Amino acid sequence: MTDPRFFHPQGPISLAALADLTGGEAVGPAGPEATFDNVAPLSLAGPRDVSFLDNARYKGALATSEAGLCLVAPAARTLAPEGMTLLLCDDPYRAYARVAQAFHPVPEPTPGIAHTASVAADAGIPDDCRIEPGAVGESGVEMGSRCVIGANAHVGAGVVLGDRVRIGAGAALACCLVGSDVIVHPGARLGQEGFGFAMGEGGHLKVPQLGRLRIEDAVEIGANTTIDRGTGNDTVIGAGSKIDNLVQIGHNVVLGRNCVIVSQVGIAGSARLEDHVAVGGQGGIAGHITIGTGARVAARAGVMRDVPAGATVGGFPAVPMKEFMRQNAILARMGRKGEDDG
Amino acid sequence: MTDPRFFHPQGPISLAALADLTGGEAVGPAGPEATFDNVAPLSLAGPRDVSFLDNARYKGALATSEAGLCLVAPAARTLAPEGMTLLLCDDPYRAYARVAQAFHPVPEPTPGIAHTASVAADAGIPDDCRIEPGAVGESGVEMGSRCVIGANAHVGAGVVLGDRVRIGAGAALACCLVGSDVIVHPGARLGQEGFGFAMGEGGHLKVPQLGRLRIEDAVEIGANTTIDRGTGNDTVIGAGSKIDNLVQIGHNVVLGRNCVIVSQVGIAGSARLEDHVAVGGQGGIAGHITIGTGARVAARAGVMRDVPAGATVGGFPAVPMKEFMRQNAILARMGRKGEDDG
Amino acid sequence: MTDPRFFHPQGPISLAALADLTGGEAVGPAGPEATFDNVAPLSLAGPRDVSFLDNARYKGALATSEAGLCLVAPAARTLAPEGMTLLLCDDPYRAYARVAQAFHPVPEPTPGIAHTASVAADAGIPDDCRIEPGAVGESGVEMGSRCVIGANAHVGAGVVLGDRVRIGAGAALACCLVGSDVIVHPGARLGQEGFGFAMGEGGHLKVPQLGRLRIEDAVEIGANTTIDRGTGNDTVIGAGSKIDNLVQIGHNVVLGRNCVIVSQVGIAGSARLEDHVAVGGQGGIAGHITIGTGARVAARAGVMRDVPAGATVGGFPAVPMKEFMRQNAILARMGRKGEDDG
């Protein structure tokens, strides 16, 4: 069960509805009219909860789970305890996402502008938006329908938001054009001036940063992440891309669609990531290079050169993953060998 | 001396009281009734100040220091200038901590709710708490005694704080249960949704994040650090653990008691750190692994596998520290050798 | 052209004035009285725009550019399309910085204190300063002329700012002495307590952090960067130094003049960087070491020992750049060689 202080499940939902939602095949004692109240992890779930197994690491938890219903891959069916009703799904994690969303839909915002919020007279804010306490909307801001601007967030002059954009507490946006269904988590800093200086012995000269940050639809941006606006061209975050916490994205970077950028990654100025690129945690991408469609950059890799589409690279400087693993094996052997020698 | 703009020492304190506080043995000209006004580093201290030597690197500063009193280990006694009064302590840094706390106790907060703060009607906030300007406490918040919510901080719906919790300016908490004597520095983001998506070619499906973040007593969390709440199980920060600035802790991570996590570390989802684990700056811990009690992870290490209790590891992928140092020695030799070859 | 939602160029400016501003030599069809309206990147520039070529990577864009005027190095003159007017400059990027500043000067702040701001009665704030909505200035704050405190920023008790300091939205300053012409980007956390504990089995004892953070003139500090105040001595950021986003600088660090610290760098406590040191993105500097004047630390390098003035180092543990590159070449060969073997 979920903590009622924080979550308010919208059940019950019938097995028939859940099967419909997931495309899964129900097997076991429960009938289609049986209902469930919530989702829960295997170890905490009770008879009124729906759970799932996706990672074989947790099969022990399945064996002893008291979940009323479990989403599993057909091949994992035999791991479940006898008498548990199952929904057999090709992709149980994706199925779980749909089920959890059904029990916990994003709440509709209660519209209104808090009396401690500050909104410019010429800001275009539909009546169905919610502006929380202390939030600030500067001159010329335009919002779509049902946006939520979190407490003490700052939406700078001229910023444009699409529909259903949710800005977290204390986030700040400047010089941004934002699509619809974008989620910005607390403390993210979007569209501020990038790090642009003409370096010189006598002092570094500031280069005005005159581009924008364009964020396309369905992007999600993590807490305390920073994305600089362009210097002249724009910085662009492609539709559906998901960016974790504490990521740095420099000016003029272009991310394609559906990229996945894990926490603490740094992407230097003018790098280009094509569609479906994934970068693991703490990775780094040098400036002015291109990472091809579908390429994968391992956690903590530092990429200094272009990466072809579909490749997987690791290490620093990054090389094809197989080579990185071979390097590691050799180094590890060297490290251990010393024990005999010395 | 400390800058009177910022610090207000609560002296004088007698040598007898300081000896009592630290368990140290006083040697030198000053008598037990002699008093001191403040603490100061060796190079800045005058005759009314108490200083300390902990790191042999600074023994030159001791030799020329004008401190009235110095906390030193018995073995370092001979490094002090003639005529300086000393307090001989087994652990001078710990002794200094107690002395500095005595001169600079945490000030009692002046209670009250600033008129620009926003507090929900049903929030449970004792009269002895302090809610600073622009701070927001949402519906259902419960606080213990003498909490301080810093300027423009956000305490989300249902969050529970113990006694004497101090939340820094602009920090944000959601879905958190917080113990007593917890310090959260400015801009930390606690309990927001973790990075959970069911990835797919056609787009990444958001997985609702339905767990909590539980922070036990006496935890300290650095500026702009991010800690995500659990997905179903909770994220847990064990009692007495200290977390530095710009650290990322993913959903479902469990930290034991008295862990020390230095700045810019990243701990991926569902990792488990047992008690007394220390992770050096910029280190990384992969998801779903366990770091045993008392293990130490060197700065910039990237740990991909379980680490046994008590071990020290370094490098990426992390190996026992001795092996890492051997790898480095071999690599360094290779790098230098090339000079002759090429 | 720049987006009129966000930028308001102050043109037109004549070719004669631009030549004067940059010291460049005009060649081509346009006369000295010809005027231009704005700056733009090569690919977006039209006949009324000034552009520049600095990086040979973009020479293709120059060849097809429709810019009315282009700043180029004398040697790159032949890369320009026929009939384009050029300003030949020894350092086109620095020249561009001056031109872009001329079209886009920093706007003078509209003075005043927003009605949702909170300013202590004893704060010294000249009438020409601007305090944006939700910003907080605590007791004893002193500001110079024409400062801007961004929305929901927090300036702690006793903080001193010079002239023309700009603090971004949601930033927080405590125990800081700040020079003139300093820019602090949104969400930076300056002068909070550093990570100081006397570690111990029975719990970690907090060490009061009693120093200050001194920021000299013309420093720029990036979004969500954290700089801790000193423990006893001060943390110091030297004049003209530029610090990017998400950088961590520990207590007692001393940066010289005109240092350049790229994003996500971590500098551990008591490290000293002399003048003109540059540290690439995601680099790390260990505590208590010295990096000599003009030294360069490559991106992602981890420096564990003193670096002599003028040296360039890379890798982890960092070594002279040439050795690092040799190490990489050897490792890369090993990784590839395996393909034949295995």
Can you walk me through this structure?
Three copies of one chain form a homotrimer. Chain A has 342 residues and is an alpha/beta fold. Chain A folds into two domains: 13-103, MurE/MurF, N-terminal domain (Udp-n-acetylmuramoylalanyl-d-glutamate--2,6- Diaminopimelate Ligase, Chain: A, domain 1, 3-Layer(aba) Sandwich); 188-342, Hexapeptide repeat proteins (UDP N-Acetylglucosamine Acyltransferase, domain 1, 3 Solenoid). In chain A, a hairpin with a 6-residue loop joins strand 19 and strand 20. Chain A is flat and about 75 Å long. The N and C termini of chain A lie far apart (57 Å).
Helix and strand topology:
Three copies of one chain form a homotrimer.
Chain A: E1 13-14, H1 15-22, E2 25-27, E3 35-36, E4 38-39, E5 49-52, H2 59-63, E6 69-72, E7 85-88, H3 92-103, E8 112-113, E9 118-119, E10 130-131, E11 136-137, E12 148-149, E13 154-155, E14 166-167, E15 172-173, E16 176-178, E17 183-184, E18 189-192, E19 197-198, E20 205-206, E21 213-215, E22 220-221, E23 226-228, E24 235-237, E25 242-243, E26 248-249, E27 254-255, E28 260-261, E29 266-267, E30 272-273, E31 278-279, E32 284-285, E33 290-291, E34 296-297, E35 302-303, E36 312-314, E37 319-320, H4 321-341
Parallel strand pairs in A: 4-5, 5-6, 6-7, 8-10, 9-11, 10-12, 11-13, 12-14, 13-15, 14-17, 15-18, 16-21, 17-22, 18-23, 21-24, 22-25, 23-26, 24-27, 25-28, 26-29, 27-30, 28-31, 29-32, 30-33, 31-34, 32-35, 34-36
Antiparallel strand pairs in A: 1-3, 2-7, 19-20, 36-37
